[in-house]
Structure formats: C-alpha cells, structure tokens
Amino acid sequence: MSKTLIVFAFSLICSVCTGKMPAIKLKAYSADIVIYGGTSAAIIAAVEAVHSGKTVLVVSPDTHLGGLSSGGLGFTDTGNKSVIGGLSREFYHRVWMHYNDSTAWKWEKHSEFGNKGQGTVAMDGENRTMWIFEPHVAETVFEELIKENDIRVLRNEWLDREKGVRKRNGKIVSFETLSGMQISGKIFIDATYEGDLMAAAGVSYFVGREANSVYGETYNGVQAGIKERGHFFKDPIDPYKVPGSKESGLLYGISSEPIAENGSGDKKVQAYCFRLCLSDHQGNRIPFPKPAHYNPENYELVARVLDTGWMDWFAKYDRIPNKKTDTNNHGPFSSDFIGGNYDYPEASYARRKEIIAAHENYQKGLFYFLSNDKRVTPEVRGKMAIWGLAADEFRDNGNWPRQLYIREARRMIGVYVTTENEVTGKRPVSDPIGMGSYGMDSHNIQRYVTSDGEVQNEGDVQVKLKYPYPISFGSILPKKEECANLLVPVCVSASHIAFGSIRMEPVFMILGQSAAVAACLAIDHKKAVQEISYEMLQKRLLERGQILQILKSEQ
After folding, report:
1. Is 461 helix (H, G, I), strand (E, B) or coil?
2. How confident is the prediction for the chain on average, in pLDDT?
3. pTM for the complete prediction?
4. What's the alpha-carbon Rg for the chain, to the nearest Å?
5. 372: closest CA among 384, 362, 355?
6. Contact 445, 242 (CB under 8 A)
7. d(CA 47, CA 38)
8. In this predicted model, what pLDDT tens digit does every residue of 341-390 receive, in sequence order?
9. Quick one: which of 74, 83, 222, 56 has its CA closest to 149?
10. Is the pLDDT of residue 120 over 60?
C-alpha cells in the first residue's frame, strides 16, 4: 500500500472513531516529478512527464492555471515562430482549433477580425496555429491538457519558504506547504515566476542588473540617456509639483536618487504591470472602476505629457478576438508602475500581496484618471469613453487580471549563465534544449531627474536580434553541489539583459517541456540532473518536436 493510501486510511478511521466527517484532504503526496508553480511552463512540463510515463504532481500557489498566458497576455511575444516547437506549439495549435470554430466568435465575426497586428499573424492557417487569443481561451486549453492527461493539481498551496524544504545528500527530499501538505518526489521542477523553491533549496541566484563588466556585455546595467530607446520623455517635462520650484517636491513616482554611471549594476527590477483585457463593444464593456485609494495627484505627470501633444496612449491596445485587447505599457508614462516592485522578488507572501495591490491601485487609478479627470486633454478622455474592462473575462476577480506581469524576479546562477553574447550569437552554445528569438527587451526601471532639471526614465532596452539563438541546458540546471535533483525553466540562469529575451511565454513552455524530459532521463538512469548525457537528451528532445537549431540560410 502506498504512503498516500496509508495516510488516507488512517485519516478516515480517525474520522469514523470521533464521529466527525470533515472534508477529506490528504496530507501527504508523492510523485516521480513534482512541479511547483501554476505557470504555462508548469503545465507543459506536467504534460511531458505524463507522456514520458512518469507520475507527476503540480503544486500550484495559483487557483487559475497558465500564468501570464491566461492572465491577459494574449498578444503573444513570439519572435521567430519557426523555432517554437514541441508542446509549446501544440498549445498554440489548440488555440487555433478553438477559433476555427464559428461558435468561438461571440462579439464579432471571424471574417471581421484582422489577421495581423504589429507584425504578429493571429491565425496561421498553413501551420494551424494561432498566436493571439482571449485569456479565458488560454485557461480552457490548459485545463483541457490537465484533464486529458489526468494530472493531479494541488491548487492554492504555497511553499513554506522558511522551513519547508527538506534536503538530504544535496537533493530535495520533500517540501511542505503552508497548509501542512507534505510533498515528496524524485525530481523537482521550479516553474514559478519568482523562483521560490529554487531559493528555499539553497540555490544561488541574482536579483537586479549585473554591471556590464560582469559578463562582458553592452546592454546590461544602467542605461540612461540613450535616446533611440522608445519609452522615454521626448519633450522637456518639469518634475516638480509646482513647476520650477524644487522646494515643492517631486511628482509621484520620481526618484530623488542621482542616476548611477551607465553600465553599472544595481538591485533594481524592471517594471511590472497588469496586461489588461479591455473591450470597446458596448455589450461587453464595464467602465473603469475608481480604486479605493485613488489620488489624482499621482497622475499629474501623465497629464503634463499629454499637454505636450503626445497622442500615443492607445498604441498598445493590441487587438485580440471578440473586440477585446491585450493592453500593455507604452511610452513615457503608462501602465508600468516604475519603481514599485524592487522588493517583490524576495518579499514575504504578505508583502508581495501588498505590492500586487499597490500595482492594481496604481493602474486602476491611471485608467480612471484618463477617463474622468478634466486635467486630461478632451481628445484622450473622449477616446477613453468607449473603452472599459471586458465583462466576460476574470469574472471572479472584478474583471481584473489575476496575474501581475512579473517580468523578472530572481534569476538562478547555475551551471551555465546565458548572456547577451549567446543571445546575439557571439558565443556558441553546445548543448541547446530550445531556442529563443525575441529581442532583448527590458522595461524601464527607474524615473529620475536629469542634470537639466527634467524628468526622465531609465532602463528601457529594445534590441532586435538578427537570428534566433540556442539556449543552453546548463541554464536550467543549478550547480550540482547546490541541488542535484532540481530544474528551473522559468527563473533561468541568465543575465538581466539575456533574460529580457528569454522571458517570453512560448520560450517558458519550451523550457518547461525540456526540463521534464531531462527529469525523466535522470530518473530512468538514476543520475543527478547535471549528469545525464546531453546526446541522450538531445535525441529525446528532437523526438518530442523541439527545435534545437536552425541554419541561418533557413531564417
């Protein structure tokens, strides 16, 4: 009899003896592969584990699965789609199948939906994939994958980060959740955006930006005053509450710290935001709510930007099906809550909850301000009047996304650190487990006062890549002496600026599948994850449809 069944039987006997029959909740679980997280990478890794004949358990802090892919990021950052293979491509194929059914088009006809948006093809009939979708559709696809593969998911279960991880001889034996669940396994995969299991297991990591000198890079560290970047103040804007009066204090969100030397490192993190699903369809639109802690003075800076004649506020209202959007940050002042997240990566659960609430309050206040405040130009207020939250999305959360866009948190320092040099092709990779192709992309990190007495943003980097690049197996492996049975496909071992390219949802799914394949091989051959044969791994990945390299002549 298994350990789980013994615990179950004992609990049942005790309940009968006492005459009490509470809802039965098993306290001990085990599986060959234990995946911590509810992200897209977590679900894809679990599916691969089942396909490879292993038992798997997903322990998810989230109730709703899919992370950002089901949390509002429906306008997929694909890069070169030809390098998206395996189960990641299968996900986008299933999205295509959903929208190929006429019943999926509730608020508009399929024929009315534009097939392109900023270079992203929505429906690729030739390859039977779709890259642009509504949040609830993505969640449905993930739930179908869970059901079809009979994957057990423990939801709303949070790792005890302080004392929950138990290790023996350099391996994780088990971990405990805050509710008292005991989770044991042979191999563990940390598929969270934060890297909590990785950190609790004693694996090395970094938070912030490395100096350019650390890895011989150009685009890491502080990046101030580089005018070709897009999301900065193009016109002079006074940073003070009373224009021209330093004594009046700085406007909300502007740092008083002097800007550091370009290329220097720090512990600051690129900005987060919610990817909002908006609608301009009268029958499916809810007006922007006024947040509980609304302060219009917090948005004086955006009013000053609009006063300069800036009219790109609506540039990232990217269309997804059924007259909705995936609305993202754009321009000098937008939905990114710059500077509001520095302590998030290592914060307690309670503190993270406060940070998430602050981001929600900031972003709700911003959209309410732009829709209602007379300080906003009439043209912008008039256009905002036709928009609102999509009424048929996130219904259990006030139509607000459940997942904050954690663009970056901890990043492991593992067997191999992927840097700008690998991403740009300057340095070859001998053990690829997947490919990335999106440009190196960092959102702004701080807002400061220049030597000319003007407000400016810093941290925005947008560097396009000529070719896709391979991602090293070593980038998902901790150092063996730190943990021999853990893989990390989301908080990968990469520099800040390299992670800016890797951090796209299709790539997380690719790395999630590759991590699960590696986990299965480690179990089969009774080896540490760092010891498995790359040739064997490569063969299995290719059999699974992963794209590990393409010739430049094919690009």
Report:
1. strand
2. 93
3. 0.93
4. 24
5. 384
6. no
7. 13
8. 999 999 999 999 999 999 999 999 999 999 999 999 999 999 999 999 99
9. 56
10. no
